[in-house]
Amino acid sequence: MSNQEIENNKENFFSQQDSIPNHVAVIMDGNGRWAKSRGLKRSLGHKAGMDQVKTIAKHANRRGVKALTVYAFSTENWKRPLDEVNYLMQLPVEFFDTFMPEIMEANIKVTMIGIPDKLPRKTKKVMENAIKSTQNNKGMVLNFAVNYGGRSEILAAAKDLAKDIAEGKKNPQKVTEEDFESYLMSSVLGEYQNVDYMIRTSGEERISNFMLWQNAYSEFYFSPLAWPDFNEKAFDEALAIYQKRQRRFGGV
Ligand code: V07
């Protein structure tokens, strides 16, 4: 490739015609392993992971991503040692204590999917506060999946729909996929409910019960990097891969 071609490529990298995925979802894997490989405690890996959420949220917003869902804590994570669970549960408190000014500055809107019941009261409170104080922001939606499971989300939606049918509010013959989506927790994402690009870090290549319905048509990207190492450059590389796939798709 000539120097000129490389320059052209750079310019074209994020040009208007290149598609930026509207909704990016990330499974932030490898925080514990990242810490261990440095001889640090697992909690320091989670702290580094939390800081990376801030970096990538700001960056994705700048790149024109409309919704970023981050899988922070799964329903399976409760099986971890109690002190680790306790540490994870205060991360949202720390997150908003330090990041709220920048969230407002970047016009980011915070939303949440998952079951808040079991979360500590203080944690729930800061999350509710963040959702409320950003509800009119018009920038990217930063959606946290906390204590979330994909099957349980679908099952809860089916139960709610069954209730509406039993009460005569819905005609079962006329229920569409769009109707069903309005029962999913991810309806907080509005028009960008379906995932366009699913990223998982740290070399794992599984969906792990994450947004099962919403990933029906998404592209998947697996990075060998641990989440605390998945920086802006790594995110841009992932976007470039997405754009390459879109171009190939559009070309035929
Ligand atoms: C958590 C850091 C990121 C890597 C994955 C596991 C550890 C941010 C949050 C968070 C959640 C809700 C919210 C604001 C911030 C978080 C947990 C774990 C449980 F409203 N990072 N992070 N929550 N990790």
List keywords for this structure.
252 residues; alpha/beta; Undecaprenyl pyrophosphate synthetase; 6-stranded parallel beta sheet; 6 strands; globular; binds ligand V07
The profile of the biggest β sheet is: 6 strands, parallel
- What compounds are bound to the protein? ligand V07
The CATH topology: Undecaprenyl pyrophosphate synthetase
General form: globular
Give a count of the beta strands, DSSP E runs of length 2 or more.
6
Q: Rg from C-alpha positions?
A: 19 Å
Count, helices: 8
Strand content: 5-15%
| Name given to the CATH architecture | 3-Layer(aba) Sandwich
Secondary structural class: alpha/beta
**Helix proportion range:** 40-55%
CATH superfamily: Decaprenyl diphosphate synthase-like
Number of domains: 1
H and E string: HEHHEHEHEHHEEH
Strand order of the largest sheet: 3-4-2-1-5-6
Name of the top-level CATH class? Alpha Beta
Low-pLDDT windows of residues: none
Please, what is the average pLDDT? Answer: 93
Q: What is the distance, rounded to the nearest whole angstrom, between the alpha carbons of the first and last residues?
A: 24 Å
List the topology elements.
Elements: H1 3-13, E1 23-27, H2 31-36, H3 42-63, E2 67-74, H4 82-105, E3 109-113, H5 121-133, E4 141-148, H6 150-166, H7 177-181, E5 197-200, E6 219-222, H8 232-251
Helix pairs in contact: 3-4, 4-5
The chain binds ligand V07.
Describe, in plain words, how this protein is organized in 3D.
It is a single chain. Strands 3-4-2-1-5-6 form a six-stranded parallel beta sheet, with helices on both faces. The mean pLDDT is 93. Strand 3 (109-113), helix 5 and strand 4 form a beta-alpha-beta unit. Helices cover 47% and strands 13% of the residues. It is an alpha/beta fold. The chain has a single domain, classed as Decaprenyl diphosphate synthase-like (Undecaprenyl pyrophosphate synthetase, 3-Layer(aba) Sandwich), CATH 3.40.1180. Ligand V07 is lined by residues 28, 31, 46, 49-50, 53, 72-73, 88, 91-92, 95, 127, 130, 144, 146, 227.
